[in-house]
Amino acid sequence: MDILKLRGISLFVIAFCLLILALILWQRAEKDKAKIWLGSSAFFSALYAFFCGGTYFFWNTNSIASIYWYRTTWLGVFVLPPFIIFTYYFVQNLKYLKIKAFLLYLWAAIISYFALTTDLIVKFVYFKYPNISSLAGKLDFLGRLYISFCIVLILINLLKEYFKSSGLKKLQLQYFIAGVAIFLITGIIATAIIPAIIGESPYYDITAYASFFWFGLTTMAILKYHFLNIKIITTQLLIFILWTVTLINFITEESFRGYLLTGGSLIFMIIGGILLIRSVIKEIAQREQIEKLSMYKSELLSIVAHQIKNPLIVIKGYISLVDNKVGGGEIDLKDFFQKVKVISGKLLDLLNNLLDLSRIEEDRMHYEFSMFEINKVLKEIVDDFQFIARRKCLDLIFEPVQQSQTELVSEKFWIKGDDLKLSQVFRNLIDNAIKYTDKGWVKVNLQLTTDNQQQNVLITVSDSGKGMPKEIINKLFQKFSRGIEDERILGSGLGLYISKRIIEDHKGKIWAESEGRDKGSKFIVLLPEFKEE
């Protein structure tokens, strides 16, 4: 197989891979317009690689079709507009974006039209081993100017954001700009500077290879590293460029000695490159872990400062009140101690949540499984919260299971699990329902369900309170996530996260439902039933 066919096939492979990357980005885009534009740029890059491959694979000196294959490579200018729009979305500069996009596409369309239909861009195409090259037409400079302008515009967008940013983002942009500069400067040299100096364009296909590595690494960064672990991108980009250059030298080498030297160099670079990439990825992973621990520490400090401090201040205030007035009989001791009990209980729950979070993170959560009566446990919890509910003028109602579809159910209803841990879950759900309900009621319902011949217990904690939109429901059971933000309502954002883990460890399920804001909420727990032994 001659060198032209081989280069053509390699470019077809690049085109196919770029098309796959474009489809992946479009599929994952959802409402992320940045990914849509990046995917569009990858698609046009796939077309460019395909036309470059066709130029080499179907080359025939005496065929006019070969000339038109070369002319179609100028459609590659359509890679740039969506890529520029992608950078605008990345730096969140959306002002006059539609007008900018229109002008960029218009310029690209004009260049493509002249390249395909006239000899003003491409004057003559010829074979000069091992490249297919061309002589520039009178308007060739317009295309080169457009390419250079787009590259400068991309770098300006990123540099502006770099100088406005600080901390981690500035460091990320530093690597991002370096990686983009390497890729785009390669394009400038191959498609602008060299043609301007020698009057022909023999290396136009190099940008097709480079675009694959850039789009591939950028796609990986978005989907795997969440845009951006730029050090990984930059390292891989440099290594892949070295691999590509060495591979091209190996393919175009004519002497046996040259084959040995370039082949050995290629093997050495592949092995060394893989080891270097793995080392960089490992370093980035360690840094990310440190950052996560730092964020985790900050969250805990915030909780300690706001959630523990306030209850202690309230307790101190009540104690001072007793010290001043209890002798005169001016205070209801029963009411006082009930309030202190409630506040102390909240403080204890918070500390338990922090301890449980630590156990979950270290995978050492411990349970004491035994048979217990769920009716009784729920009734006790509801009784404990009656005082809090009355203070808010809420009706707290317990609705124990009365009957199934076919028969009466025994008053004793047994669950196998850790009664203390499960009580913690139900206390958290009832406490949340009361906190987020200003008027009306909170109900705790217990019933039986059957799923695949397995009888289960369904516990529902519902309220007539604030309710939740769908986007909040989807995040409720995440760490440090809360429902509707309200400065009057204290909470660590840990209760539901821990509750979900406890229920799942009991082979059950927990989920939330709401019809929207101010329409109340339901938290539903499904646990397998066990008959009394």
Task: Kindly list the characteristics that best describe this protein.
533 residues; alpha+beta; two-stranded antiparallel ribbon
In short:
With 533 residues, the chain is of the alpha+beta class. The chain has helices at 3-29, 33-57, 64-72, 80-90, 97-117, 140-164, 167-198, 206-223, 230-252, 256-325, 333-361, 374-391, 419-435, 470-473, 495-505; strands at residues 122-128, 131-136, 370-373, 394-399, 414-417, 440-451, 454-463, 509-513, 521-528. The strands form 3 sheets. It has a 5-stranded mixed sheet. The chain has a two-stranded antiparallel ribbon with strand order 1-2. Strands 3-5 form a two-stranded antiparallel ribbon.
Polypeptide structure, described:
The protein is of the alpha+beta class. The chain is built from 15 helices and 9 strands. The strands form 3 sheets. It has a 5-stranded mixed sheet with strand order 4-6-7-9-8. β1 and β2 form a beta hairpin. The termini are far apart. Residues 403-410 have low confidence and may be disordered.
User: SS-based structural class?
Assistant: alpha+beta
SSE string, helices as H and strands as E: HHHHHEEHHHHHHEHEEHEEHHEE
Dominant shape? elongated
Strand order, sheet with most strands: 4-6-7-9-8
Quote the beta fraction.
Answer: 5-15%
Distance between the termini: 79 Å
Q: What can be said about the biggest beta sheet?
A: 5 strands, mixed
- Rg calculated over all Cα atoms: 34 Å
- The number of distinct helices, counting runs of at least 4 residues, comes to 15
